[in-house]
Specification:
This protein is mainly α. It has 13 helices and three strands; from the N terminus they run αβββαααααααααααα. It binds a DNA duplex through α13.
Length: about 325
DNA sequence: ATGGTTTTTACTGCGTC
DNA sequence: GACGCGGTAAAAACCAT
């Protein structure tokens, strides 16, 4: 499950400016869910019902696809190739509590033709059902999973996170369950933590505040549970890279590619000089975006950046001074 | 629990449009 | 005069111990 399978792009990326204008014109009748943003450029995501995809209006990134299963995604150009590629059955997925592989036995005492069963058969079916049920939702764990995965899905949608993040979150939750981390902790809290962790690991981090926004538990609990889960599962999540926040902020502020690039440069430079350490990555990113806007003569205000990054203006000021110092300490 | 560090809140002064 | 910006002090939040 490489990143590449999810990084498909459609022709929507052509002209950034016209795309945005069109979008503004049809402001009221857009069908996209509010808050669904592109993980790469933070542009608004528009649903394309016909193709069953959600596409970023800015860069054309396909954020979500296959709402409708339209058959094989591959094409075969000769018989041999077809044999190679061919496979059967729905793809398994970690977002269903039993990976979509369970069997369901009908509750009616009828055979496949609708005729009712004899007494012997009925007994047999009852036994089968009983056992099947025991396996399917083997114990409370499985039922937990079912609920948690629903929550994960809900939150990921609300945050506009791509499918691979959901998958990752699901996997983490599974592991948490297997290692008996749940007792004493709420399903909500743990699943929220999984989403948070998964987003960070996928390089499309959301701040704790953003996460808490869509979760049903308080930020404190999410933070606590998150630490716990990471520690126990010894997930290796590096401290969030400030650069990863830049695209989202930059595009929310409608800044040019140039500024975005500049902001990343500033951050990279600062990183080498070790200016950051103990400073919040989000703050750094916000400051870099602001500083970059200044350097490229684009109008933005500290207030605006503060708004989209959810960081106080004071922090932005402090950080961006440091960033600029580090910069001409090297360049000049 | 505690102490050190970072972030936020609130307020004030300065220059400009 | 409102706005953007900078600075400061004190409170709050955060983190490691």
């Amino acid at each position: 499950m490489s990143e590449h399978t999810h990084t498909r792009r459609r022709s929507g990326g052509r002209d950034r400016r016209t795309a945005r204008e069109q979008q503004d014109e049809t402001e009221q009748e857009r069908t996209d869910d509010e808050g669904l943003v592109c993980p790469e450029c933070s542009g608004n995501v528009i649903r394309d019902e016909e193709h069953g995809e959600a596409v970023c209006a800015e860069c054309g990134l396909v954020v979500e696809e296959d709402s409708v299963d339209r058959g094989p995604e591959w094409r075969a150009f000769d018989a041999a190739e077809k044999d190679q590629k061919s496979r059967v059955g729905a793809p398994t997925t970690n977002t269903m509590h039993d990976k979509g592989l369970s069997t369901n036995i009908d509750w009616r005492d009828q055979d496949a033709y609708g005729r009712s069963l004899g007494a012997r058969q009925r007994q047999k079916m009852r036994r089968l059902r009983k056992w099947n049920e025991r396996f399917r939702t083997r114990d409370s764990k499985e039922r937990n999973l079912k609920q948690a995965l629903g929550e994960i899905d809900r939150m990921a949608s609300a945050l506009g996170l791509p499918d691979n993040v959901r998958e990752t979150a699901s996997v983490i939750y599974r592991r948490a369950l297997d290692e008996d981390l749940l007792p004493g902790r709420s399903i909500e809290g743990v699943s929220t933590s999984c989403v948070y962790a998964a987003a960070r690991m996928a390089g499309v981090p959301r701040s704790l505040d953003e996460i808490a926004e869509v979760s049903r538990v308080e930020k404190e609990e999410v933070a606590r549970t998150y630490r716990y889960v990471v520690r126990e599962l010894k997930l290796e999540v590096k401290p969030a890279d400030p650069e990863q926040y830049v695209p989202r902020f930059a595009s929310s502020l409608e800044l040019s590619e140039e500024s975005e690039l500049r902001a990343k440069q500033l951050l990279r430079n600062a990183k080498e000089k070790g200016v950051h350490s103990g400073k919040s990555p989000v703050g750094l990113a916000a400051a870099a975006v602001y500083a970059a806007a200044l350097l490229t003569n684009e109008k933005t205000t500290q207030a605006a950046v503060s708004e989209v990054a959810d960081i106080s203006e004071v922090t932005i000021r402090n950080r961006y001074h440091e960033l600029l110092e580090a910069e001409d300490g090297l360049v000049a």
